[in-house]
Amino acid sequence: MVRAKTELRERARELRRAGRTYDEIAAELEVSKSSVSLWVRDLPKPPTPPERLHRMREARWAPHRRAMEVERRRAKLAAAGEIGRLTDRELFLVGVGLYWAEGSKSKPHRLQETVVFVNSDPDMIRLYLAWLALLGVEPERLRFRVMIHESADVAAAEHYWAKLAGVDVALLDKTTLKKHNPVTVRRNTGDAYRGCLVVRVLRGAELYRRIEGWWYGIVVGAGRQPERMSDLV
What superkingdom heads the lineage (predicted)? Predict the structure, then answer.
């Protein structure tokens, strides 16, 4: 009996030196916490292992994170409810701003009046396509192409974007593959990564000029003088 208790005591001290808590030692040795305290109280308190510190932090911050997530969702839902159904004019204005922010633009040093829109956000693509439909751009004037890293699931991305655009995958233009650099740490990986979709409007020079004019009209309407208004004259 004495020998067994001595062995338990030595084992308790080993575990304490290894950084175990009183509760963990008591549970492993199936003894009372008071016995563990008596056996190891002369030993210095070990530093808290990193994994335990992580668990402690998570336990401390988990309620706060949950509350923040609830508040985040509440704010988003409330804001979404403030929009409602867009009128054609509202969609028109939103689309002009969307294109001018994300679409290709002609430069003074490179006149290139083409209507090309590239984005990785499916909602942006849906909104842009709805805008083109509002403008009366015929579906047969649209061309679609995927841009994606060669290390991704290219076939899956092509099917995803083709379905979103409402075309057969065979009708997509040849996919542009970005070379993979193993030195670069990429964060856009995993199943959710589908690259970008390029949407090009054929015979789009006249449409591009109208988009540029619409944008300048919005700027003037907002009470601002556009820098390149002279280009319209």
Answer: Bacteria
pLDDT in tens, 138-159: 999 999 999 999 989 999 999 9
Residue 91 and residue 94: Cα distance in Å, rounded? 5
Amino acid at the residue 72: R
Contacts of 23 (CB under 8 A, 6+ apart): 33
Residue-wise pLDDT for 205-221, tens only, equals 999 999 999 999 999 99
DSSP 127-150: HHHHHHHHTT--GGGEEEEEEEET
pTM above 0.85, yes or no: no
Domain ranges of the chain: 2-40, 88-232
Length of the chain: 233
Q: Given phi > 0 = left and psi -120 to 50 = alpha, else beta, which region is 19? A: left
